[in-house]
Amino acid sequence: MIDWDAKEITMIDKHYQEILDPSVNLIYFCRHFEEIYTMTMNDEILMPDIFNDITYYTSNGINARYKVLISPKKEEEVQQKLLPHRMKQRAKRQEAHNKGLKDYYDFMIKEVEEFIKIYPFWKELLRK
C-alpha cells in the first residue's frame, strides 16, 4: 500500500476540480495506482503526465512507482522502451505550457482522455 500524502493530494484534487472541466480524479487514481501502474508497465503504455506528477506526493517523498513490486529487470526494460515516448510527452507538455495555461490544461485532459480510450474501465479517472 502506498503512503500517499492525502492532505496534499486532496488539496491538488480540489484545485483541479475548480479549474478543469472535465477534471481529473486524483483521489481515484491514488486508490487504484498500484493496479494502474502495474498494468501500464505490463502493457508498455505511458501514463498520462499528470499522473506521473502525482506519484511524488507520498508521505516520505519517495516516488510511488518505487513502492510497487515489479521485477527490476522488467521495469528497466519497459522504462527504456518508453523513454522516447516520455521525451515526446515532456516536449508536448513544455510546448503546451509555453503557449499558456489553457493549452497546458487541455494537454493534461487530452492525455487522460486518450488513456481512457485504451482502458475504458478507468473512465472514473475523469470527472465530467
- Computed over alpha carbons, the radius of gyration is 14 Å
Contiguous low-pLDDT stretches (5 residues minimum) are none
Task: Please work out how many helical segments DSSP would assign.
Answer: 6
Strand order of the largest sheet: 1-2
Percentage of residues assigned to helices: 55-70%
Architecture blueprint of SSEs:
Blueprint: H1 6-19, E1 23-24, H2 26-31, H3 33-43, H4 49-54, H5 72-99, H6 101-118, E2 126-127
Antiparallel strand pairs: 1-2
What does this structure look like?
It contains 6 helices and 2 strands; from the N terminus they run αβαααααβ. The radius of gyration is 14 Å and the shape is globular. With 128 residues, it is mostly helical. Helix 5 (72-99) runs antiparallel to helix 6.
Sum up the structure in keywords.
2 strands; mainly alpha; single chain; 128 residues; globular; two-stranded antiparallel ribbon
Summarize the structure.
The protein has helices at residues 6-19, 26-31, 33-43, 49-54, 72-99, 101-118; strands spanning 23-24, 126-127. With 128 residues, the protein is mainly alpha-helical. The radius of gyration is 14 Å and the shape is globular.
